[in-house]
Design brief:
Blueprint: H1 3-10, H2 13-17, H3 20-29, E1 32-34, E2 41-43, H4 46-54, E3 58-59, H5 63-69, H6 77-83, H7 91-102, H8 107-112, H9 114-131, E4 138-139, H10 140-145, H11 147-157, H12 164-175, H13 186-209, H14 215-221, H15 231-261, H16 264-272, H17 277-287, E5 294-298, E6 302-304, E7 307-309, E8 314-317, H18 319-322, H19 357-374, E9 379-380, E10 385-386, E11 395-397, E12 399-401
Parallel strand pairs: 2-8
Antiparallel strand pairs: 1-2, 3-5, 4-12, 5-8, 6-7, 9-12, 10-11
Helix pairs in contact: 1-3, 6-13, 6-15, 9-11, 9-19, 11-12, 11-15, 12-13, 12-15, 13-14, 13-15, 15-19, 16-19, 17-19
């Protein structure tokens, strides 16, 4: 199959459901493949992906670039929110925003959330036990994978508990903008972005009048001097922190549980040795990455592994394929939590390494051992239902039984 045909296959429903044979076909062609059309090249070899993610010549999509590709982009609130965030800025602007956000998003603050995560996990497991009594099916995504990160990131930000369920469909709508597709994704995404921005604007006003020990208060107060976020940047930061903290963790939990339930010996081992949670979570992230791809563009003529990338070109960076590069990971399609040096690229690398990676892995490391210990008979109750996306890979439904 040609490279062009491989990419066409990746865009089909089956390709989105199971991209891995297509990644293997790409690896057989080398670490980089030239393309025609929207992308100058596919970058899928591990070392090549690392280079692109760390090389400042390759930039994330930003307002400058989007204005050339889509002059009317500012008509879409969803794109405005995205372009104001650290995910879609480069250079000094990115460094400034990232510094202001990450100075509050500390390891100490994440560690302080451990008791909150544990109590939220146990509360949700109680609900699953009640729903799954007498062998009834339970949707793991609805009852655990969606609410756990929503509650944790809500606690971190200071979003009241009664408002958190409202966020889930809004987050999903904005996330759809990141995937390839037509203009039909914009109306729901724009509505969600406008409503989330209005929500956080109101919450910022409340916290400035009544400060609390939460991220909304801290980021709102980080504006007393010139080294600060603008109001628009602040709202974008809050929307994106909630989105990123929600989506990645949700699909790590769903993808990881499916892997465990299809590998009962590995599940038994983690149940008996909960101290192995960290390498298990890293292997879930490598094998079934929630974030499968990203893009970069270059303003100068350059090349990757001998493939020319002219100035103004965009390359497709396949994180999920790099995580399964046989030149970097022996037997890459196998679940092997004992892998040494499991430096997966799911959280990206370089300047745009995910600032919420520690929170995401902490939640999963606490959740999986408690889930397995609580339900020794945990099993799949049917075929999982996957999202029709490749960029953000995960489930919409994951049926389980616990008794």
């Amino acid at each position: 199959m040609s490279t062009a045909a491989t990419f066409q296959a990746l865009r089909t429903e089956e390709g989105r459901r199971n991209p891995y044979p297509h990644y293997a076909a790409l690896h057989a062609t080398g670490p980089v493949a030239p393309l025609t059309g929207s992308y100058a090249a596919s970058v899928h070899g591990y070392d090549a992906v690392c280079r692109v993610l760390r090389d400042p010549a390759f930039r994330v999509l930003d307002a400058e670039r989007l204005s050339r590709l889509m002059p009317s982009w500012q008509e879409h609130p969803s794109l405005t929110v995205l372009m104001n965030s650290i995910m879609f800025t480069n250079g000094d602007q990115h460094a400034r925003k990232r510094r202001l956000i990450t100075r509050e998003f500390t390891a100490r603050r994440v560690a302080a959330l451990a008791d909150t995560v544990t109590s939220q996990v146990d509360r949700l497991l109680d609900g699953i036990a009640e729903l799954g009594a007498s062998g009834a099916q339970v949707d793991f995504m609805k009852e655990f994978a969606f609410p756990l990160p929503s509650n944790v990131i809500g606690e971190l930000l200071g979003v009241p508990a009664e408002d958190r369920a409202w966020f889930q469909p809004h987050v999903t709508a904005i996330g759809a903008v990141l995937d390839a597709g037509g203009d039909s994704k914009y109306p729901p995404a724009d509505k969600a972005a406008a409503e989330l921005s209005a929500y956080f604007a109101d919450l910022v006003r409340q916290r400035r009048q009544d400060p609390r020990d939460d991220l909304v208060t801290l980021l709102s107060a980080a504006g007393e001097d010139e080294d600060t976020l603008t109001h628009e940047e602040l709202l974008s930061a809050l929307v994106l922190v909630f989105n990123a903290g929600f989506e990645t963790t949700t699909h790590l939990l769903g993808n990881g549980l499916e892997v465990l339930l299809r590998h009962p010996a590995a599940a038994k081992r983690l149940r008996e040795q909960p101290e192995l949670a960290a390498p298990y979570v890293d292997e879930f992230l490598r094998l079934e990455a929630p974030a499968q791809l990203t893009t970069r563009w270059t303003a100068v003529d350059t090349e990757i592994e001998g493939v020319a990338v002219p100035a103004g070109s965009t390359v497709l960076v396949l994180l999920g394929a790099a995580n399964r590069d046989p030149a970097r990971f022996p037997e890459p399609d196998e679940f092997r939590p004992d892998r040494a040096d499991n430096a997966h690229l799911t959280f990206s690398a370089g300047a745009h390494f995910c600032p919420g990676a520690l929170l995401t892995t902490t939640e999963a490391q606490l959740a999986f051992p408690r889930l397995l210990a609580r339900f020794p008979g945990l099993a799949l109750a049917g075929e999982p239902v996957y999202r029709s996306q490749l960029t953000l890979r995960g489930h919409t439904h994951l049926p389980i039984t616990v008794a």
